[in-house]
Design a protein that fits this description.
Arc Repressor Mutant, subunit A, mainly alpha, 11 helices, 70% helix, three-stranded antiparallel beta sheet, 4% strand, 2 domains
């Protein structure tokens, strides 16, 4: 019964969340629990659980005598990976991708420079391992396997920076890269130049060359934006 409840809760959440982020429920819309119960044919407990999750993302607010109200877009927790995923699945995908790529361009080069100063030998080895994994999976339409190494590579960069704020953005970057792959906003085979840049970043971090690590990572994010201009104009 517990697993069944979780399944019902997830079904409601995965319907309401994308609908809110897509604008099907504009800010100020009141979601009435009794109507949601009937629509999804679930108990009030299930609806309340889904609403609590949406509240944690700041997508909705519960007010006494008013009900559950959709909050303005600027109040959403846009760093929540599920919110990112829902927005990438919706009509606003191109703008969302650009917004997130601009964020990456501002953060990741600096993080790479810091990683060159602070990365441990184990972290350097991880970077090299994932860069080589990207090389190995960059041909033959192995995008899912490539994604595993790509997301891991960027997580290590952010963590190895030694800055806990950067490290917390690992889920955000992973959500962006995953969304690009799932929604086919990537070439069938990754750009060989971009793959090479990842290998060079790993080497720059290993050798402690902060300026080179930062510059190369900036090339990666610039290239990602250029891909969007082609694939998600």
């Amino acid at each position: 019964m517990e697993n069944e409840g979780k399944g019902l809760h997830a079904r409601v959440l995965e319907s309401l969340g994308p609908a809110i982020t897509a604008g099907d429920y504009p800010p100020g819309t009141v979601l009435r629990t009794d109507e949601l119960e009937q629509r999804f044919d679930v108990s009030r407990t299930v609806i309340r659980e889904a609403i609590r999750v949406l509240e944690s993302m700041q997508l909705v607010a519960s007010r006494r005598r008013v009900g559950v109200t959709v909050r303005p877009t600027e109040e959403w927790n846009v760093y929540d990976p599920r919110v990112i995923g829902w927005r990438l699945a919706g009509r606003d995908r191109p703008r969302q991708l650009r917004s997130l790529t601009v964020l990456r361009s501002a953060i990741e080069p600096v993080a790479a420079g810091l990683a060159a100063r602070h990365a441990t030998p184990a972290q350097c080895a991880e970077l090299t391992e994932h860069a080589m994994g990207m090389v190995a999976t960059s041909r033959g339409q192995q995008l899912d396997a490539y994604l595993v190494h790509d997301t891991a590579f960027h997580r290590v960069i952010l963590t190895a920076s030694g800055n806990e704020m950067f490290a917390r953005l690992g889920d955000v970057v992973a959500a962006v890269l995953t969304g690009r792959t799932q929604h086919h906003v990537m070439f069938t085979d990754p750009d060989p130049a971009a793959v090479t840049l990842h290998v060079q970043v790993a080497e720059a971090v290993r050798t402690g060359d902060a300026a080179r690590a930062e510059s190369l990572t900036r090339e990666i994010t610039t290239g990602a934006m250029a891909e969007l201009d082609v694939l998600a104009p």
